[in-house]
Design brief:
The complex is a heterodimer of chains A (about 525) and B (about 375). Chain A is an alpha/beta fold and about 525 residues long. Chain A has 18 helices and 20 strands. In chain A, helix 14 packs parallel to helix 15. Chain B has about 375 residues and is mainly α. Chain B contains 16 helices and two strands. Chain B has a two-stranded antiparallel ribbon with strand order 1-2. Classes of the chains: A alpha/beta (about 525), B mainly alpha (about 375).
Chain lengths: ~525, ~375
C-alpha cells in the first residue's frame, strides 16, 4: 500500500485563536481504505484540526493534500467537492424534515425539489443495499433514535460522494449495541475503499477498530502509531503526558444504614408522557449506586425530583423522613437543608452561571449561609473569595483565579468548581449526573477520586452516567434504567458491558442474565 | 342579515385582510428563515407614505408602488445588516425601524406637503382602483337588485384593486416556493437548523438576506395598498398596528401560508364588522351572555396555566365580567326600570368595543389560547459557527 499516495496528507498545519495556539505544526498521512483514529484530551486541538479540514477555519499555515493533489479548503462547499464528509458530534440535521429532505439539502439537482427527491430516493436505496444503511426515507428526523440519525448523517456524506469520512466522537450518544452496529458499518465502508477518520477519547474504540492512531496533546501531534503496536495504557500516557490510572482505585464498600429510600416513583411530564414508571431503589451510607442507561430514559427526571425541582408521585424517604414531591414546598434550597447535594447533569445550564465569577459560583445555593454574611443586609464578599480560593486550591482548579468568570474555564475545571461546591458541604447524599461529560482524562481521574473519598467518609452517592466504563469503575451497585423503569440491579464484579448493554436496550432482566 | 349584507361583509373582510395577509406572508418568509421581524409595522408605514407621496408627485401609482417597495426593502436590508451581519438583537433592530418610520414619515410629509403630516389626497389616476370584471354590475342599485350569484360575482369577486388579487395569489405562490423549490427547502432549513445548512456548504447569510428582502417586498406592497388603494393618501400612523396583528396572525397560522390566509381573513372580518356595523344594537341579555361566556372561557383556560397567564387572562376575564354587569345596571338606572326588565332592553354596543375586537383577539392568540404553535427552532438567534 505504501506506493499509493495517501488519501489525506496534512503538512505543517498551524492555527491560533488569539493567544491560544490550537494547532501547532501538525502533519498526518492517512492511507486510503484505512480507519485512522485521532485521540486526545479536550482542548488538544482535534476538533480544530478537523474543522480546518472541513473548511470551517482557515489554517494560518500548512498544506492539505487530497489523494496527492494540493488543495485549498476555504469553505464546506470545497470540502464536499474534495470528497470529504463529516459526521459531527452534534448532528447537523433539520429536526422536522424527513430523512430524504435532509439528505438532499444542499445537494439538490435543480431549482425544483421533486426531481431531486426522486433521484435521492433511488440513490438511498442503492446505498442502503451497498452499505447496509437502512433508513426509512420518509421518516421525520425527530421521530428517529440517535443511532438512526447518525446513519442519516453518514448517508448524507455518502450521497455527496464522500471518499473520506470524518466522525467526531460518534459513540458518545449510542448504546453499546448501536455502537457495535456503527463499527460494523464503518468496517463495511472501509472494505469498499472509503477512508475513515475517527475522533474519540475512548481508548477502547481506538483499539477495536482503527488501523493507525494519532495522539494529540496541547495542540501538537504527539505521535502516530500502528494500533497493533500499542495498548490503552500507552495511549493514555501519551495523551496526558504522564502515567494515569485507567481504573478507579478503590477499596470494597462498607455500606451502612439506608440514607435514601425511593418507593414507586412515577413522573408524568406536561405532555402527558410517562417518564418514570414505578421506580424503587435505595442508597446506603458508604456506597455508590450507579444508574446506567442511554440518556433520555428517565434519569434526568429522577435527578430533578431528587434535587427538588420536579414533580412526582410516590414516596422518597431521606433518613427516614419523607421528602416533598409535589414541587410546592421543595426546591434546591430545601433539599440542601435536608443534606442532599447535587452535581447536575448539565453543568453549564444548571450547575453554574457562566457569566458569573468562579468565586460567586462556589457560593451559589449556599449563599444564605452565615459564613458568607457580613451583617443582615450585606454579603461578605471577602469571605466568599477566601473560601473560593481554598476550594479551588484543594480541587486543583486551573487557572487558580476566583475572579475569572465560569465560562472562561475548561469543561473539566468548570466541573471541578461544581464538585468542590457540593462535596465540601459534607452532604449525606450526593447526586451526581454525568460527572465527567466533556471532561478530560486527568480531571476525570481527579473527580472520580473525590467521589470515592466522599463514599469512604460514609456518605451515600447516587451516580447517573451514560458512560458504562464510569459506571462499572465507580459503582458499588449498578441499576440500569430503560424507558423510565429500572430493568435490573447488578453488582459490578458479577456483570459486564454486554449484559448491561442488553439491559440498557430494554431487554428484560431474565433474558439478559 | 340578508344575503347582500353578508356578501358586503365578506367583501370588506377581504379588503381589510389583504394588508394583513401581505405583511403576514412577509413575516412568514423572514421568520421561516430564522429572522424575527417586529419591524413589519414600520416598513409598511414607510412604504405607505412613500408610495402615496411618489404617486402624488409622479402621477403614476405604479411608480409609487415601486418607491414603497424600495423603501421597505432598504429598511429590511438595514434589519438584515443589524441582525445577520452584525448578529445584533432582532427585536431591538425591529423596534428601531418602527420608531424610525413612525417619526420620519410624518416629519417628511409635513416638510414636503405642509398638510399636517399627511400627503394630499390622491387623484383617481394616482390610486389603485377597483377592477370591474366583465359582466359585473358596479352601481349599488344594480347590485341590490341582482341575483345572489350575480351579487357574489359583482361585489365579492369583482371590484377589488389589482393588489387584492395579487395578495390572494401570493398565498399559493408562497406555499409553492416554500414546499416545492430548492430555495424553499433551504429557507425552511435555515430557520430550523442553520448549522445543517452551513455544513451542507450553503451560505446562511445569503439565504437569510434573501428571505429578509422578500419580506421587504411584501411589506412594501402591503403599505402601498393601504395608502393608494384602501385610502387615497397617507395619514399619520395609518397602519394602525397592522404589522403587529400580522405577527399574531402568523403565530395563529403556525407559520404556514394557507393557514395565514385563514387567520388574516378572520382578523379582516373583525375590521369589517367595525366598518360595516359601527352601530350594533343588542339586547342587554345577549351582551351579558357573550361577555360572561368569554370571561368564563378565559378563566377555565387560565387556571390550568402558569402564574403569569392566570394573572393576565384572569384579569382580562374579570374586566369582561365587570363590563357586563356595568352595562346591565347602567341600563337599568338610565332607563329607570327594574334590573330584570333591563335584561330585555336593547342598547347600542359602544363602537370602541367593536373597534377593539381585532386587538382583543391578538391578546388571546398571543396568550397561546388557540393551540400550541411551535416557532422555527432557530428563530431570533443569530447564527454563530461553533467550534
Amino acid at each position: 500500500m505504501n506506493d499509493m499516495s495517501p488519501a489525506i496528507e496534512l503538512v505543517g498545519i498551524s492555527k491560533a485563536f488569539g493567544p491560544v495556539q490550537a494547532n501547532k505544526d501538525i502533519s498526518i498521512r492517512v492511507m486510503p481504505g484505512t480507519i485512522h483514529g485521532i485521540i486526545g484530551e479536550n482542548g488538544a486541538g482535534k476538533s480544530t484540526l478537523m474543522s480546518i479540514l472541513y473548511g470551517f477555519y482557515k489554517a494560518d499555515a500548512g498544506e492539505i493534500y487530497i489523494a496527492g493533489q494540493k488543495i485549498q479548503i476555504p469553505d464546506s462547499q470545497a470540502a464536499i467537492a474534495a470528497g470529504i464528509g463529516m459526521v459531527f458530534q452534534h448532528f447537523k440535521l433539520v429536526q422536522n424534515f424527513s430523512v430524504l429532505e435532509n439528505v438532499v439539502l444542499g445537494a439538490e439537482d435543480g431549482a425544483l425539489l421533486r426531481p431531486s427527491l426522486a433521484k435521492a430516493r433511488k440513490q438511498l436505496k442503492t446505498l442502503a443495499e451497498e452499505y447496509e444503511l437502512h433508513v426509512d426515507p420518509d421518516a421525520i428526523i425527530e421521530d428517529l433514535g440517535v443511532g438512526m440519525q447518525q446513519r442519516v448523517e453518514i448517508l448524507k456524506a455518502l450521497y455527496r460522494h464522500a471518499d473520506i469520512l470524518i466522525l467526531d466522537e460518534p459513540t458518545g450518544v449510542l448504546t453499546p449495541p448501536e455502537a457495535d452496529q456503527l463499527f460494523r458499518i464503518l468496517g463495511r465502508l472501509k472494505t469498499e475503499g472509503k477512508t475513515i477518520i475517527l475522533i474519540t477519547h475512548k481508548l477502547r474504540e481506538i483499539m477495536d477498530i482503527t488501523d493507525t492512531v494519532s495522539v494529540m496533546r496541547r495542540g501538537e501531534m504527539d505521535s502516530t502509531v500502528r494500533t497493533s503496536m500499542t495498548n490503552p495504557a500507552d495511549l493514555a500516557e501519551r495523551m496526558v503526558g504522564r502515567k494515569v490510572l485507567l481504573r478507579v482505585d478503590k477499596t470494597l464498600a462498607k455500606p451502612k444504614q439506608v440514607v435514601i429510600e425511593v418507593r414507586d416513583l412515577n413522573i408524568t411530564d406536561e405532555k402527558g408522557v410517562h417518564r418514570l414508571k414505578g421506580v424503587s431503589f435505595n442508597v446506603r451510607a458508604g456506597e455508590i449506586l450507579g444508574i446506567a442507561g442511554v440518556s433520555g430514559n428517565g434519569q434526568s427526571e429522577l435527578l430533578e425530583v431528587l434535587g427538588g425541582y420536579g414533580k412526582a408521585t410516590g414516596e422518597i424517604l431521606m433518613n427516614g423522613v419523607p421528602l416533598d414531591l409535589t414541587g410546592a414546598h421543595s426546591d434546591g434550597q430545601s433539599r440542601r437543608a435536608r443534606g442532599i447535594a447535587h452535581v447536575p447533569e448539565d453543568r453549564q445550564h444548571d450547575g453554574l452561571i457562566m457569566d458569573f465569577s468562579a468565586s460567586e459560583n462556589t457560593a451559589f445555593g449556599y449563599h444564605h449561609d452565615p459564613e458568607y454574611q457580613r451583617n443582615t443586609l450585606l454579603m461578605d464578599n471577602a469571605a466568599i473569595l477566601r473560601d473560593a480560593q481554598g476550594k479551588m486550591e484543594r480541587f486543583d482548579v486551573r487557572p487558580l483565579n476566583p475572579l475569572l468568570s465560569a465560562k472562561n474555564f475548561s469543561g473539566g475545571n468548570q466541573q471541578k468548581i461544581v464538585v468542590a461546591r457540593e462535596i465540601e458541604r459534607d452532604p449525606d447524599l450526593l447526586l451526581v449526573g454525568q460527572p465527567t461529560r466533556g471532561v478530560d482524562i486527568g480531571a476525570i481521574e481527579f473527580i472520580h477520586q473525590q467521589i470515592v473519598a466522599l463514599r469512604d467518609a460514609g456518605k451515600a452517592i447516587l451516580l447517573v452516567s451514560v458512560e458504562l466504563d464510569e459506571i462499572l469503575g465507580l459503582s458499588d451497585r449498578i441499576a440500569v434504567m430503560f424507558d423510565g423503569q429500572i430493568m435490573g440491579e447488578r453488582l459490578p464484579e458479577n456483570t459486564n458491558e454486554k449484559e448491561l448493554g442488553l439491559l440498557m436496550a430494554g431487554v428484560t432482566d431474565g433474558e439478559a442474565a | 342579515m340578508d344575503f347582500f349584507t353578508i356578501i358586503q361583509l365578506g367583501d370588506a373582510s377581504v379588503r381589510m385582510a389583504i394588508p394583513l395577509l401581505l405583511a403576514c406572508l412577509a413575516g412568514l418568509f423572514s421568520e421561516r428563515a430564522g429572522i424575527f421581524d417586529i419591524g413589519l409595522e414600520g416598513k409598511m408605514l414607510a412604504a405607505a407614505f412613500l408610495s402615496a407621496a411618489v404617486s402624488y408627485t409622479s402621477g403614476s401609482v405604479w411608480v409609487g408602488l415601486l418607491a414603497g417597495i424600495g423603501i421597505s426593502v432598504i429598511l429590511s436590508i438595514i434589519h438584515g445588516i443589524a441582525s445577520i451581519t452584525f448578529r445584533g438583537n432582532q427585536l431591538i433592530s425591529g423596534v428601531a425601524i418602527n420608531f424610525f418610520a413612525a417619526g420620519l414619515t410624518v416629519v417628511i410629509a409635513q416638510g414636503w406637503f405642509a398638510q399636517g403630516g399627511r400627503t394630499p389626497s390622491l387623484p383617481k389616476d394616482a390610486r389603485f382602483n377597483g377592477l370591474n370584471f366583465p359582466g359585473a354590475v358596479s352601481r349599488m342599485r344594480d347590485k341590490m337588485q341582482a341575483s345572489p350569484g350575480m351579487q357574489f360575482y359583482s361585489e365579492f369577486v369583482s371590484g377589488h384593486s389589482i393588489l387584492v388579487y395579487l395578495g390572494i395569489l401570493a398565498v399559493p405562490l408562497s406555499w409553492w416556493i416554500l414546499y416545492h423549490t430548492r430555495f424553499g427547502l433551504r429557507l425552511r432549513a435555515v430557520g430550523e437548523a442553520p448549522e445543517a445548512v452551513d455544513t451542507a456548504g450553503i451560505s446562511v447569510v445569503r439565504l437569510r438576506f434573501s428571505a429578509v428582502i422578500i419580506c421587504g417586498i411584501l411589506c412594501g406592497i402591503a403599505g402601498a395598498y393601504l395608502s393608494t388603494a384602501v385610502q387615497a393618501g397617507f395619514t399619520k400612523d395609518m397602519t394602525a398596528n397592522r404589522g403587529f396583528i400580522a405577527l399574531a396572525a402568523l403565530i395563529f397560522a403556525k407559520w404556514r401560508p394557507w393557514y395565514a390566509l385563514g387567520a388574516c381573513l378572520l382578523f379582516g372580518l373583525f375590521f369589517a364588522i367595525d366598518i360595516r356595523f359601527s352601530n350594533i344594537q343588542l339586547q342587554v341579555i345577549w351582551i351579558m351572555a357573550l361577555l360572561l361566556s368569554c370571561a368564563s372561557g378565559l378563566t377555565t383556560y387560565a387556571v390550568r396555566r402558569e402564574k403569569i397567564d392566570v394573572i393576565v387572562l384572569g384579569g382580562l376575564s374579570f374586566v369582561l365580567a365587570g363590563v357586563a354587569f356595568v352595562a346591565w345596571f347602567a341600563t337599568a338606572s338610565t332607563e329607570g326600570i327594574s334590573i330584570f326588565a333591563a335584561l330585555w332592553e336593547t342598547v347600542k354596543v359602544p363602537s370602541q368595543l367593536i373597534q377593539s375586537l381585532p386587538y382583543l383577539f391578538v391578546v388571546i392568540v398571543l396568550a397561546g389560547f388557540v393551540g400550541k404553535a411551535i416557532p422555527p427552532r432557530a428563530g431570533g438567534q443569530p447564527y454563530v459557527k461553533e467550534r
